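(Deposited chain)
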Amino acid sequence: MQAEKCTHDRKGGAVLNPSKTKKTLGEKKFALVWRFLRRHLWIFGAALLCSMGNTVLNSLTPQVVRYTVDSVLGGEPFPDLLLQIVPEQVLRSLPPMQVLLGAAGLILLISVCAGLCMYGSRMGTAIGSESFVKSLRDALFEHIQRLPYAWHVRHRTGEIIQRCTSDVEVVRNFVTNQLLEVFRIVFLIGFSLAIMFSMNSRITLIALAFMPVIMLYSGIFYSKIAQRFLTADEAEGELSSTVQENLTGVRVVRAFGREKFEVERFDQKNNRFSGLWIRLGRLMSVYWGVGDLMTGLQILTILCVGVVAAVNGEITLGEFIAFLSYNSSLVWPVRGLGRILSEMSKAGVSIHRLAYILDAEPEQDPPDALQPPMDRDIAFDHVTFAYEGHRVLDDISFTIPAGSTFAILGGTGSGKSTLAHLLDRLYDLPPENGRITIGGVDIAQISRPYLRRNIGMVLQEPFLFSRTIRENIAAVRPGATLPEVRLTAGTAHIDESILEFPEGYDTVVGERGVTLSGGQKQRVAIARTLMQEAPILLFDDSLSAVDAETDAQIRASLRDAKGGSTVILISHRITTLMQADKILVLHNGRVAELGTHEELLRQNGIYREIHDIQMSSADRSALTDEPQISE
């Protein structure tokens, strides 16, 4: 038997493992970035052009200083370009102060133009990066919505959130501050080298001698540290999961006095996370220290060689000053490549982690997916299913007549909820493991959205959104009027309780409905499902948190309101199931008994045993609750 794999740890999920992917790491990085970057290339292209313009304009300032020093103070010839505009006699006749003021004005003009280019570059980068990251966020969220339920079961919510927030921001920073910066630095280095070679090729070659050493050192260092960034990011995901689990289970923590334990658990995760980043910081400090030493040695060498060359008349004083300026514009960008490599190394990890999510196979229906009538018989035909190799259902076969009320009873782990998950296709049943049909049509051929729209499901642990009660009930029909909402709430016997709140139906429930009691949450969830008006209604132990009297009232209302809907009741409570048309008893994943309440009682089997135990317990509770009459 081939069963669907559902590998998850027993502590709430599996760690997202980016190594289990089809493409290589490099392909994944490029494909992901290019997929979203290409939509905004024109914005980034304009920003890059403005950045290049800023580089060209800034490179003019050292030339103005060079010729001002050499021609005004040193008597060297003025540049040919200037002489084509102003005759040399006129320039020589001007007082030096006027020439200096003219040079200052020219530098000011260049600075203004360079500033405008920088503004355009930064603005374009900001717009482009925000557009890029918005597209990435939208794609991530949309893709996660389409991933199978089994995928969500296998992965921790906190780590998914961490990837969709922290990792997205790292990628944004990569595109904004690193990817474009690499292009700018390459252009700056090439432009500066061209000017430096035109001034003195020998000194330029000496300056270049240090560059390969610095770049090689940076490349080797960050190739070795990439795995440490991955480990640190995984530790951050575990930390996020710990916080998320604690906040989600705040009631349990308070109820059992587990605050100290949770603090210690968080402290342990936090210490590990902090320790990893301290070690990373120590390694980065070594890198920056050695890098600064190399940079200082390069500048010192150029300074010594340049002074000797100036003394020997190989270069003028103005050329020496300009050369030092260009060397700084060369060495510091190369030095900055270390920082960029650092961020790119971390960005590579984040890109890979995001690609893992986007590469996950979403739920997909074939183009010819069917949308048959759903008010038909439901049949389970020799259904077998397993989690992680552990068989949960074993050769299950039964039929639920259309419009009937069908009940399922079984102990913990008997497979009751698995039947519900298979019917709603939260898990897909392998073809060789049997069939589930509605009106004779295999549900594997039915469109998932259509199937789920026609099955109203209420779970044992209902989820409520952090919105008003009215919005929660009308979630499946956003345009529902208040009278319609109140009608379904009345059927679920929650209308009166809601009206007791100060804000009534406009009361905002806390996260996951934490401000409501368990029974109130279940009844709100029932009202939401009834609002769906689905032909199939499935209640998975969804009356467990209400008392027996309210349970009976809700079931009576459901019988009156269900119309022609097929109702499936899953419960461990006999009183909830006894009025059903048929009752299925599951035991160890197999059909143990099937019949009406009276038929099953006559069989003296599992159902009769459970019935007698529960009725006996109910009788004892009634006797205990009777008032005592004092003599």
About this structure: Residues 499 and 505 are 7 Å apart (CA to CA). Residues 25-359 form a domain with the ABC transporter transmembrane region fold fold (CATH 1.20.1560.10).
